[in-house]
Amino acid sequence: MKTQQQINQQQYQDKAKNYLDSQSHAQGIEFEEIKKIIAKRSHPVKALDLGCGAGHVSYQIAQICEQVIAYDLSESMIDLVEQTAAQRGINNIQVKQGCAEDLPFENTYFDVVVTRFSAHHWQDIQHAIQQVYRVLKPQGLFIVIDSIGSNQPMLDTFLQSVELLRDPSHVRNYSLGQWLNLTESHGLTPFNIERQALSICLDDWVKRMHTPKLAIDAIRYLQSMASDTVTSHFCIQNNGDFQLDVGYMVFKK
């Protein structure tokens, strides 16, 4: 029997470079928003890039932070971040391996915790949010960017299905309402909540994850059989390209 963490590590052990080169991960309107909100802090900032992947958040915010810790379950990801930061001459990024549910940091250590397109992989999101609250300083910020689920069962079932087919390490996309309930129940207050749209090129999306043909065929089958409501909501195109809902969420301790 495999644990969810073992599945996550297996899925990402040979894909770090794919994520470093991914334009959908390297670019995003949220980067400027993240930097603006960090720049408003009145003292030097210590930041945690939680589930850092290829390190795109870390590279963006390092210039305005005293210290950035890039933290990920995948050893290949953090190795790549360490190498890339050195190549780019960024000397205030440190890397550490581990899971979101067990953060090996002191209480109230970070001013900001950022997680981008990682939370839908967390095995126990409630425990992870408890950990985030613990390591944040008073008035610290928890910034979440992630694809989000829907309160409409038909839309949510479709989304979770194609996500899992593409990547078996997927756990769940949470709706905005679920995010608000989860964070507020653990002492975090909503500061800014926005909904964005992310265009997905299906070929790139599955290639980045080395999704097998059988699973790609299943995704295309679900798309072809989708109702008008699902097709319209996700803007599903004839070539399989579609659109994801993304939440940009800022919470304060």
Automatic annotation (TrEMBL):
A single Gene Ontology biological process assigned to it is: methylation
Q: Name a GO molecular-function annotation.
A: S-adenosylmethionine-dependent methyltransferase activity
Please give the InterPro entries that the UniProt record associates with this protein: Diverse_substrate_MTase, Methyltransf_11, SAM-dependent_MTases_sf
List keywords of the entry alphabetically. Answer: Methyltransferase, Transferase
Going by the entry's taxonomy, the superkingdom of the source organism is recorded as Bacteria
Residue span(s) of domain Methyltransferase type: 48-144
Q: Which Gene3D superfamilies does this UniProt record tie to the protein?
A: Vaccinia Virus protein VP39
User: What CDD domains does the record point to?
Assistant: AdoMet_MTases
Recorded family membership: Belongs to the methyltransferase superfamily.
Supply the name of the protein. Answer: Methyltransferase domain-containing protein
Q: What organism does the record attribute this protein to? A: Acinetobacter boissieri
